[in-house]
Amino acid sequence: MIYRDEEELFKSRSIEVVDDKLRVKDLELFRDEIVNNLHDTLIFSDSAHIKKRCHWVVNEAAREFGIIPSSIQSFYEARAKENLTRFTVPAINLRTLTFDLAKAVFRAAKKINAGAFIFEIARSEIDYTGQRPREYASSIILAAIRESFTGPLFFQGDHFQIKPKNFLKDRDNEIGQLKDLITEAIEAGFYNIDIDSSTLVDLSKSTLDEQQRLNYEVCAQLTRFIRELQPKGIEISIGGEIGEVGGKNSTPEELRAFMKGYLTHIQGLKGISKISIQTGTSHGGVVLPDGSIAKVKIDFETLKALSQIARTKFDMAGAVQHGASTLPKDAFFRFPENECAEIHLATQFQNIVYDLLPLALKEKIYTWLHENLADERKPEQTDDQFIYKTRKKALGPFKRELHALPQDLKDKITSILEEEFSFLFEKLNIKDTKPLVDKYLF
User: Fold this and answer.
1) Residue 344: strand, helix, or coil
2) Within 13 Å and on the Cβ side, how many CA atoms surround 23?
3) Would the CA dihedral through 306, 312, 313, 319 be positive or negative?
4) Using the 8-state DSSP alphabet, how is residue 323 labeled?
5) Which of the residues 181, 210, 339, 433 has the least number of beta carbons within 10 Å of its own beta carbon?
6) If pLDDT is split at 50, 70 and 90, which confidence band does 245 have?
7) Residue 287 and residue 424: Cα distance in Å, rounded?
8) Residues 285 and 319 in one domain
9) Does residue 434 lie within any of the structural domains?
10) Are residues 75 and 29 in the same domain?
């Protein structure tokens, strides 16, 4: 059911509004009936006003159900101070079927009493998946309500990235756009923001300080902005990055050069809680001509060394691994072993969804790619390579069709992905981390 107006939205006997606050009178009725209606309205309604009111209901209901959008800052501080390195926190990007896939995440987490996991979305993903921060957060909160998950919930702005060409053309405008996005995200409950100004690293410079200068200056500028903007009582967790994913592997010397410059520019403010590095991966993996993914050799020695430096010298949680979801299954247990603080996972979840889509819908999407993204095709690319690299950009234009898939097919997709999440959570060793999260956040 899609709500057409406020009268229809608020007529349910499970809720009432008193003094501009929502009270959920019947939790089970709200969970069983209202949750799906709210989500359908957020996806399918054309009314900006009714969507805004649905977001308000979701945020109010979150409090009633004990769901708390939170910063992971204090948990990461504890990781540094108390050497809590036995696990790696998964940061999960849901590019499509967000409500359904989030339910699968919560089911997998509840089975092992896990609390140390993050839902994130990147600057680029917000655009091509058609999911603004508030919609993304609301969909996941509704999934949490549906699956009876309670406690801290971590939303993260992933790769809030500086675009180098735009920056060089008009620095203030590019930073201003990123500030606008940060503001929007924080207002939606994203209390974890990863700044990616590593795109400004210039390896042609003669010294490490000069190479990292623009990176640490912009990261510090945005850190100051976030600290001024963060809600009272919340210390937003901020991430930095020293090496662009897909580039050369990071070094301890680069980390020290970045941190030295960065710390001098934040004037005693709370700094970043983690640092993203390059260890040999690339986003989405390297696609071979037949569409398969090339095997990648990860530099685990670098990952461990930089994690230890970040934790022991700069009081951070450690190093962050990007571009990891398409790695071989036997790689994931090595991340906790090598003290990786956080691992970002995205493309493989999208791949599983595409593998299970009806052939007619896939053909429709692939035709759209050839008609609308032909200018992105490189001369040497095969059809398989082109489709693999660009099909993520169809998720926004086909969002409603994907969400309108038959429920039995969505159940099949989420069942398979629940197994995938369970596998990852086991290998990343986040079992029984919910009590730890509660301990350091409350």
Assistant:
1) strand
2) 6
3) positive
4) S
5) 210
6) low
7) 22
8) yes
9) yes
10) no
> Which DSSP string corresponds to 310-322?
HHHHH----EEE-
- Residue partners of 38: CB distance under 8 A and separation at least 6: 3, 54, 57, 58, 138, 142
Does a structural domain hold residue 346? yes
- pLDDT value at residue 282: 56
| Residue 288 pLDDT exceeds 70 | no
Identify the pLDDT of residue 414: 97
- The whole-angstrom separation of Cα 202 and Cα 301 is 24
Are both 250 and 132 inside the same structural domain? yes
- Does the pLDDT of residue 47 top 70, yes or no? yes
pLDDT band at 373 (very low <50, low <70, confident <90, very high): very high
| The token pair that represents 379 in the structure block | 């001369």
Specify whether the CB–CB gap between 260 and 314 falls below 8 A.
no
Q: Is 363 a domain residue?
A: yes
- 300-350 pLDDT per residue, tens: 999 999 999 999 999 999 999 988 888 899 999 999 999 999 999 999 999
Question: What is the residue range of 32's domain?
Answer: 6-64
Give the whole-angstrom CA distance, residue 372 versus residue 365. 10
Q: CA-to-CA distance for 51 and 42, rounded, in angstroms?
A: 6
22 secondary structure, DSSP code: E
Residue for token pair 């099909």: 391
- 232 by Cβ neighbours in 10 Å (0-12 / 13-18 / 19+) ranks as exposed
Does the pTM surpass 0.85? The reply is: yes
pLDDT band with cut points at 50, 70 and 90 for residue 241: very high
User: Would you say residue 1 lies in a domain?
Assistant: no
User: Could you tell me if 397 and 417 lie in one domain?
Assistant: no
Same domain, 244 and 283: yes
CATH number at residue 101: 3.20.20.70
125 and 241 share one domain: yes
Task: Say if residue 283's pLDDT is above 80.
Answer: no
